[in-house]
Amino acid sequence: MTFKSDIEIAQSTEMRPIDEVAKSAGISSDLLEHYGKYKAKVSLEALSESEGQQQGKLILMTAITPTPAGEGKTTTTIGLADALAKLGKKSTVALREPSMGPVFGVKGGAAGGGYAQVVPMEDLNLHFTGDFHAIGAANNLLAAMLDNHIQQGNSLNIDPRQITWKRVVDMNDRQLRFVVDGLGGKANGTPREDGFDITVASEVMAIFCLATSLQDLKARLAKIVVAYTYDGKPVTCADLKAEGAMTALLKDAIKPNLVQTLEGTPAFVHGGPFANIAHGCNSILATKLALNNFDYLVTEAGFGGDLGAEKFVDIKCRAAGLRPDAVVIVATVRALKMHGGVAKTDLKGENLDALAKGMPNLLQHVENMQEIFELPVVVAINRFPDDSEAELELVREECRKLDVNVALSEVWGKGGEGGLELAEEVVRLVEAGSDRTPHYTYELDTTIEEKIEAIAKRMYRADGVVYTNKARKQLKELADNGFGDLPVCMAKTQYSFSDDPSLIGTPRGFEITVSNLKVSAGAGFIVALTGDVMTMPGLPRVPSAEKIDVDENGKISGLF
Predict the structure, then answer these.
(1) What distance in Å separates the CA atoms of residue 417 and residue 50, rounded to the nearest whole number?
(2) Catalytic (active-site) positions
């Protein structure tokens, strides 16, 4: 059997014209803005026209704590949507757009893999419809207007030492983390320490994904806190009169993007905040448009359940009035053995002892979804050829103790056909029904400290939370400035329940250290930074970019 790379599989697939895909979704071609033959933006009029229709079922895809062995969450998300379509359900998938930083770095793209992909995958993983460029431009316009205000007399009394707004670029570039700018004399600005974030870490990205309309987008942009005055008062985007121009840059980007899977299932791909430094979900607009037009929507939240799923429920669902109808937790036997202490190079071959030691990681994610959010759960084992029957049975046995079924997923090699067992279990859970009352990790009327403690103790199983002196001071300032009732977005390593990436499995006896706090007032949450989480990643020793090439006909190779 000849092995095909993801890009070779994608390039050999005949895609349906995007008008046909839209028609199957019940969206008129008059409401499309075409970006070539196979991708389009959907006018927000489509959301208005579908408002009030019977809402579809929302299926949340999350995973165990990520490992270098891989879990396959995006692939399983796409494959499940295709499998539901094979069962006769009108299904769709909603994903985040990939950042070019990881594409050229080490993580790879976000279009799935094997025979469960979203296409055109090259476009998706590169410039797509230009949304990230628009978000970066809006972010950097605000930065330019901020520095220009100071240069032109600083009537707002902004303290240059208390500027919190950074410029962004959609690339992993550690050289830009800390810079000094404004050098070269008075005509070139005010010298100050500065830095860049990656575009997906921008508050503009978070706002973009949480906005419910163009007017809501503008109102949220206006609330962004960019700096503080010499007497400690917050300075906002509205104070700089920048929100109108920023909204103008985003007026087309805010429209959801429509593409398709390899099997022709409609797919909405829109927005892309990281889950370890932001809230890790696609846009509310794409989610609602999909729910209004389909019976089943499968959507993913970034990284493991302690990050993406927690934020999906506590931030996105709370803001949008949504509640998942079922949760799928993706795991691999390989990854669970890594959580049991096995090196990546030693994963082949049956190892029941290591699997048993790693299983608690999966079980803690299951318990969190069941006990904190009170949601029905199914575990999807992304099957590898060397998984033994005894290993698979061990996973089933342990999950049964929590009254959770395990379904094997082979969508990477078989597409939707390989996800039928999982799709049938999802349908069973949905049709069985569940309590529709929303349940959250914390309530909004508690203090910032109490919210952080609730996440740390309930979700991570930490003993408690420690604050640096800087963070302790920021807690008081945020409360004094009226931000105490906002939800919390934890910025934490994705590789552990703790804030130490080396503590794999299910660590106990640890504390979470909060080093910095900042308000994302437009997005509507407080960001609590822990450990060594960085908002500007760097490239690895051997970047994926070294393998990417294009021939004389414009055909791309090496892109996964």
Answers:
(1) 30
(2) 73, 75, 96, 107, 275, 303, 384, 412
